[in-house]
């Protein structure tokens, strides 16, 4: 973890319709290789909350 420059991933979901499972897979795979995951276009507050719940157990899994 130390001595590395942070990597960032930006996922833009503003043009996507039915994406729950796809996003879950993307987030799980992306957070394992990126230190910072930025979600763009998530205007649905309950959905954004679910994303945070999904991310919690994934972050730090490889440490």
Radius of gyration: 12 Å
The biggest sheet, with number of strands, parallel, antiparallel or mixed sense and barrel status, is: 2 strands, parallel
Please, how many helices? 2
Strand proportion, as a percent range, falls in: 15-25%
DSSP, total strands:
2
Question: Mean pLDDT across all residues, rounded?
Answer: 59
Shape: globular
The percentage helix is: 40-55%
String of helices and strands: EHEH
Poorly predicted regions are none
What spatial order of strands do you see in the largest sheet?
Answer: 1-2
Query: Distance between termini?
Result: 8 Å
The helix-and-strand class reads alpha+beta
| Overall tally of structural domains | 1
Descriptive overview:
The protein starts with 7 loop residues before the first strand and ends in a 5-residue tail after the last helix. 41% of the residues lie in helices and 16% in strands. With 63 residues, it is an alpha+beta fold. A two-stranded parallel sheet has the order 1-2.
List keywords for this structure.
two-stranded parallel sheet; 16% strand; alpha+beta; 63 residues; globular; 2 helices; 41% helix
Blueprint of the fold:
Blueprint: E1 8-12, H1 20-31, E2 36-40, H2 45-58
Parallel strand pairs: 1-2
Helix pairs in contact: 1-2
């Amino acid at each position: 973890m130390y001595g590395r420059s942070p990597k960032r991933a930006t996922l833009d979901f503003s043009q996507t319709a039915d994406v729950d499972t796809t996003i879950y897979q993307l987030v799980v795979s992306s957070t394992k290789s990126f230190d910072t995951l930025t979600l763009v276009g998530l205007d649905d507050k309950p959905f954004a909350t679910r994303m945070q719940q999904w991310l919690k157990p994934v972050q730090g899994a490889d440490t």
